Amino acid sequence: MAATIDKLRSFTALVCLLALAAGCDSRELDLRGEESGKEIEEREDIDSHIWMSAYVYPEGCAWQLDTCSVDRGHPALLCDGEMLVLLEDRDSWTSAIVAGGHIFDLLYDSGRSLLRCDGELCLDWEGEELVWDIAISGRSLYCLCTARDGSSLCLRKDGKLLRSYEGCWPESGFYEDLGRLCFDVGGSRVGTVWDGGERLLDRDAFSDMDSMRAHTMGGELWLLAEFIYKGWQYSAVGDVDSPPLKAVMEPYRYIGLLYGGRKVLVERENPSGHYEILADGELLLESEVAFTRLASCCDGMSVRALGRMADGRWALMGDAGTEPLPEGLRPSPGLDMAFRYGRLIFPVVLQDGVAGLWDDGKTMSLGLNGRVEQLVIGRGSSGKYLLSH
């Protein structure tokens, strides 16, 4: 009983502290920096295409059975299913990243990080780092990086260090909010950094919370904070900028946030294992069966989620209910999904390990022995999944 009371007090303190934090630790920054002369530009007509990174394996290699080394898979850039770039020298240490209609990968040499664009060296800098995401803005290239040991997070523009955060890691890739380039931060500080400012909370001020995550939507900083009691007691906190904050203490597991146009949609799992979507606190969608959500996205108020049912089958959940995927079809390991002109698209693996696409209920083969790792609609989908455990 005493432990429960302590948790309730901590929960109340959280709400009070966040209300106080609404006007604190918000700084204006210049993330644009100086121009460096680098000229990596987006490809023309980028918004009208589907861009994908894939790993292509030699014919006869049963990669899905893990019978061949990952090093034998070659990163490739696909546009609407057509291969534009194949990186045949598989020496990079990290996953390939698609940005601006280009494919990027990273190598290390003599303590330096070497970034390649379409197989050609474009940037290098001192120190070995991991690149988590890349964005092209104008003629500048932004890289969201961490130290290889995970001790710090940093933002680079054209290879030059702009910001560094000790004890932090990325909670998202780059995304746009109100026309600003943003990314979310976790670790010793929690919040969002954007082009022109940052809004970060000191994690030590909320030491009683088991986890805290943040995301900016519509110019407002939203938080999911939780503590665990008997496995199911969770707290959810909404918009920091509009106190008094609405706090919920129920036996639900809050697992993510989606931005449905002008509304924030909250994803949660109820005690029966059903997946639910709330819009402004009202139940919008429920799986009606036990469903473990692994990926989700939205187009306005239309939500689709991909996951597994209790019997282990892959299933797709949406406005029409929960339906298993056809026999022999499974999502690609990257679990990327997006809407295009109202149609849901996500990469799949067909029989015999051939890469394919699910396009609004229809499947098409890409004719590659391999898997799609990343899917991007134009510059990126505004309904893309944002925040997750």
Description:
5% of the residues lie in helices and 55% in strands. The model is unreliable at 1-11, 19-24, 29-37, 243-247 and 381-389 (pLDDT under 50). The chain starts with a helix and ends in a 12-residue tail after the last strand. The protein contains 1 helix and 33 strands. Strands 2, 3, 4, 29, 30, 31, 32 and 33 form an 8-stranded antiparallel β-sheet that branches. A hairpin with a 2-residue loop joins strand 3 and strand 4. It has 389 residues and is mainly beta. It has one helix at residues 2-21, and strands at residues 26-28, 50-56, 74-79, 82-86, 97-99, 102-109, 112-117, 120-126, 129-137, 140-147, 152-157, 160-166, 168-170, 175-177, 180-187, 189-194, 197-202, 211-217, 220-226, 234-237, 247-250, 253-260, 263-269, 274-279, 282-299, 302-309, 314-318, 321-324, 330-331, 338-340, 343-349, 354-359, 362-377.
Helix % is under 10%
Mean pLDDT: 79
Helix tally? 1
Beta-strand percentage range: over 45%
C-alpha geometry = globular
CA gyration radius, whole angstroms: 21 Å
Task: Set down the secondary structure blueprint.
Blueprint: H1 2-21, E1 26-28, E2 50-56, E3 74-79, E4 82-86, E5 97-99, E6 102-109, E7 112-117, E8 120-126, E9 129-137, E10 140-147, E11 152-157, E12 160-166, E13 168-170, E14 175-177, E15 180-187, E16 189-194, E17 197-202, E18 211-217, E19 220-226, E20 234-237, E21 247-250, E22 253-260, E23 263-269, E24 274-279, E25 282-299, E26 302-309, E27 314-318, E28 321-324, E29 330-331, E30 338-340, E31 343-349, E32 354-359, E33 362-377
Antiparallel strand pairs: 1-17, 2-3, 2-33, 3-4, 5-6, 6-7, 7-8, 9-10, 10-11, 11-12, 13-15, 14-15, 15-16, 16-17, 18-19, 20-21, 22-23, 23-24, 24-25, 25-26, 26-27, 27-28, 29-31, 30-31, 31-32, 32-33
